[in-house]
Amino acid sequence: MATKMPKVPVVIVGMGWVGGIIAAELTKQGVKVVGLERGKPRNTADYYMVHDELRYASRYDLMQDLSKETVTFRNTEKMAAVPMREYGSFLLGEGLGGASVHWNGQTYRFLPYDFEIYSKTVERYGKQKIPEGMTIQDWGITYDTLEPYFDKFEKLAGISGDAEQNPMVGKRSAPFPTKPMVKTPVLKLFEDATKKLGYHPYMMPSANLSEQYTNPDGITRAACQYCGYCERFGCEYGAKADVIVTALPIAQKSGNFELRSYSNVTQVLNDGKKASGVVYVNTVTGEQFEQPADVVIMASYVFNNIKLLLTSKLGKPYDPATGKGVIGKNYCYQTNGGSATGFFDEKQFNLYAGAGSLGMEIPDFNGDNFDHTNLNFIHGAGIRISQTGQRPIATNSVPKGTAAWGGDFKQKSLKYANSVLSVSPQGSSLPWKHHYVDLDPTYKDAYGLPLPRITFDFEEQDRQMIKFVAGKAAEIMKEMNPTTIGSSDQLAPYNIVPYQSTHNTGGVIMGADPSTSAVNSYLQMWDAENVFVVGASAFAHNSGYNPTGTVGALAYRAVEGIAKYLKQGGSVV
Amino acid sequence: MADKNTQHTPDHSRRRFLKYTGTAIGGVVVGGVIGSAVSGGFKKDTPQTSPTPSASPNPQVTADYNQAPMFLNQLQLQVAEAAAERIFPKDDNGPGAAELGVAFYIDHQLASPWGVNARTYRMGPFVKGEATQGDYLSIERHELITMGLNSLEETAKTKHTKGFVDITPEERDAILTSMEKGEILVVNGITGKTFFNSFRILVMEGVYSDPLYGGNKNMAGWKMRKYPGNQMSYTNMIDKDQFVVMEPRSLHDHFVH
Q: What is the top EC class of this enzyme, as a single word (chain A) (predicted)?
């Protein structure tokens, strides 16, 4: 039997970026909040020995313990799903701060086009442009409505970026809070090449602070040291924005916040119309607790948001046969491929130095920034160069034709250790009727709950897109004048083994229509007015941009909705 | 840098002496940190008591009491070193896997949580899926690696009537290549390919991980590729056009400062 705790106004499931922001903002307003985090507490002092590639990058020290829970995967419904037994394609965070601790800090906003993708595609190309089975839909919100929330998130984190507005991305109401990061020789090479080709390069918006910064809450953080250990690592300086060095201290200072670590939520209690609280397990003792609450905020990673709703029987599960139902619908990923690698025989760059979001992008082939009339795909990819710090275990690029081991491999991998650059597209991922997440019929987690099951593959749309942007990436690399170029414009079927991207999206999508979306534009569930499901799970598709900027904006949007609901109840739209 | 004496049988008493003097490692003494796999010096060594620093004729003499195999048996350790050396061989650029201590690194990893798949999903059924669905091994990583090492030894014995460490480098390469191609079964149902891929990654980790893990001896792996290791800040040089070479620092440096 679960021990019943005293009722609270708000309980939050998961203390990552989303949970932390919502906790900070609500407690500032005087609302009592309990935050449940299944992992351990931690802070910057825990990263004293963080420059350890083996521990953090190869052995995934900060990631979810897969012995307790994972996902299962299959490419199509014809295959039997098998568990992801070890890490590969994407990395799930765990512990206080969640993925905000181990991210790179690349903080883009989605394009205005993204939020109205269906309408704008039909408007420009006609309905027949959308292939059979592709389930793109508008998000029920516009870029202009979301703009102030983007601004809030960027000010919380101190995002660094160009002072001038790039003409091809959403218009900003205010400049970036901090100046752009250092434009290194590598970045300049990319900038010169892309400008010569007539494109519009700009500095990657970065959550690695370019200078000391004090945010509107009065929290001051130090500048990034370009140490080259961001993605998969925590930042010992607090220069990389995460929720522990930004929002959480505000919540904790308010006196209205209680954080419970080692608390794994296993159920959202509900009667089908409203939630009454959550059940969680103390992962240290195994004891069960019930936490009653007026409002339940689901703020864990995409898969856990979906899984908890399905196992708690909250919302209508998606049925791929009919296309009806919403929970698990429109699972999307990121389509990465088509990068061009340049080997520079005569040049060495300081590639060991860098930062997670030290880079540049051209938006010219992202979204609908180019004409798709004669192309067999919609949307596109951001084409980038980045200097994140080339760590030696992970980075041993050799020209094509070199063996994978032995004397020649050693010689070439050493020769090019500081002389290899890549121009890489990060492609959008659009939803299909037959891509979704449901519950696995066979495999269970350590608490006896079914694992989430992913059914996903790359489609002809993705292969065409990668072929197209691969040509652009190779063109840019050629202009950068390396000795030799390696590139491929082929996209293989989705494979869960090689690392690609931790940008999993969808499953609890937002929209204006309760029959095709799970949450409204305030992230409030259509089917349960006191449940808000916040995060990239709300994305109706994934753009060619990193998701965190948009996730942060949605968190601020949700705060407004939750506050409204606490005052007046009912649907807030 | 090591000299050209690597092909000669070492003088054991001299070797032992030099082995325990700090100046000798990577200098006169040949081969890897567990002895020269090339000359077979290690396996012919008889167990002996290490001289204690105070009893030594040389005040600089120290024995590294923190270093000994945790997991593999003696033969497996030697085979691991010989195989690792073929994957990342000594050449004009600098030491190979043997001298870098990669065999010790691998041994230590097999004894670690990684070796027993502590943080991987282990509930059954274990079903062989498609290539796109990933690993399905029901055995643990330390079992895969030791079975693979045993298989290298058995294959050498079958083909050449000699152990893996006693055949020529070319013969070792041929066996490793068969492993890589999956032509040799390591154990029922598991091809050499699975072992080889995992072993190759272990070797690269042993070459380039922080020395605290037992490989990358004296940061020589990093030095070869001009990787500076654990530095606190590159703010002063991040915008520089010229390539900056700096003396690497390890996590040990970070810890004691």
A: oxidoreductase
Q: What is the pLDDT of residues B16-34, one digit of tens each?
A: 433 433 333 333 233 455 5
In this complex, is the C-beta atom of A417 within 8 Å of any C-beta atom belonging to chain B? yes
What distances in angstroms separate CA B181 from CA A88, B140, B174, one per listed residue? 22, 22, 11
CB atoms within 10 A of CB A274: 17
**Whether B203 contacts B87, CB under 8 Å:** yes
Residue A322 CA, distance from chain mean position: 29
Cβ–Cβ contacts within 10 Å for residue A397, how many?
Answer: 17
Determine the Cα–Cα distance for residues B45 and A569; give it in Å rounded to an integer: 81
| pLDDT score of A1 more than 90 | no
Q: Note whether A226 contacts B234, CB cutoff 8 Å.
A: yes
pLDDT at position B37, please?
35
Cis peptide leading into residue B125 (ω within 30°): yes
Retrieve residue A380's tokens.
């596109």
A85 vs B135: CB contact, 8 Å cut-off?
yes
Tracing tokens 């083909």 back to the chain, one arrives at: B159
Dist. CA B176–CA B149, nearest whole Å: 11
Is A363 strand, coil or helix? Answer: coil
Q: How many Å apart are CA B47 and CA B59, to the nearest integer?
A: 23
Is A51 among the catalytic positions? no
Whole-angstrom distance, CA of residue A352 vs CA of residue A228: 7
ipTM of the complex: 0.96
Q: Please report the beta strands in chain B, taking only residues with DSSP state E, as ranges in sequence order.
A: 185-187, 190-191
Share of chain B above pLDDT 90, in %: 67
What backbone torsions phi and psi does residue B28 show, to the nearest 5 degrees? -85, -40
Enter the DSSP assignment of A413.
Answer: H
> A292-301, pLDDT tens digit by residue?
999 999 999 9
Is A298 within 8 Å of A13 (Cβ atoms)? yes
Is-contact A99 A502, C-beta < 8 A?
yes
Spatial separation of the C-alpha atoms in residues B239 and B232, rounded to whole Å = 16
- Closest-CA residue in chain B for A223? B235
pLDDT for A425 beyond 90: yes
CA distance A111 to B163: 63
pLDDT tens for each residue of A319-332? 999 999 999 999 99
The closest CB to that of A65, out of B119, B228, B230, belongs to: B119
Q: Which CATH architecture is the domain A3-75+83-568 placed in?
A: 3-Layer(bba) Sandwich (3.50)
DSSP 8-class letter at A206: B
pLDDT value of residue B136: 80
**Distance between first and last Cα of chain A:** 38
> Looking at beta carbons, which residues of chain B come within 8 Å of A52?
209-210, 230, 251
Nearest of A231, A216, A186, A543 to residue A388 by alpha carbon? A231
Any residues with CB less than 8 A from the CB of A105 and at least 6 apart, and which?
A206, A207, A208, A230, A240, A241, A355, A356, A357
Which two three-digit tokens encode residue B132? Answer: 């796109």
Structure tokens at B142: 């330390």
Structural contact between residues A84 and A451, judged by C-beta atoms closer than 8 angstroms: no
CA distance B85 to B36: 11
pLDDT tier at B61, thresholds 50, 70, 90: low
List, as ranges, residues 152-171 from B with C-beta within 8 Å of A. Answer: none
A357 touches chain B (CB under 8 A): no
Instruction: Please give the Cα distance from A470 to A421 (Å, whole number).
Output: 15
DSSP-derived secondary structure for A455-510: E----HHHHHHHHHHHHHHHHHHHHT--SEEEE----PPP-SSS---S--EEES-B
**Can you tell me the distance from the alpha carbon of A322 to that of B202, in angstroms, rounded to the nearest whole number?**
48
How far is Cα B128 from Cα B132, in angstroms, rounded to an integer? 11
Q: What is chain A's Cα-based Rg?
A: 23
pLDDT greater than 80 at residue B248:
yes
